Give the backbone structure.
Amino acid sequence: MVPISNATWSPVGADGTYHHSATALSVFWSETEHQMLLARWPHLAAEIGTTWDEHKQRIERHCALVSRAGHKVNQTAGNVSGLEAFLREKHINDPTSEDLLGYPDLRTQPTMAPWPPTRAEACWCGSGRPYKRCCRPYSLGTLG
């Protein structure tokens, strides 16, 4: 065990308490993977959106809400073959929304990117358009 005096983090509270930061993982599905996912398991549309545009809006708004709550957000791309392997390992044939929330298994160390991209950077959704002209406007509206 590492003594607290040697820890790489320190108390930030006035009373000497430690502040722990959470990082949320947001899984998004490319347009092709989204179509494949819904073709295989149409009932998951309620969780990921019935169209790819709806999916992108949900992901962007989710990331904005998490960020506004003071947490960091990392994104990773989901893929149907990875989800199938994840479900097979757990002996699941017909996934629920809860199973979808358990994917990916972080032990597989998925490639993650911090959210949000800079305004001029390519959008996270893979459109090739600058973030400011693609998905960013979805996070700027009211989040009621």
Q: What stands out?
A: Strands lie at 23-29, 72-78, 113-115.
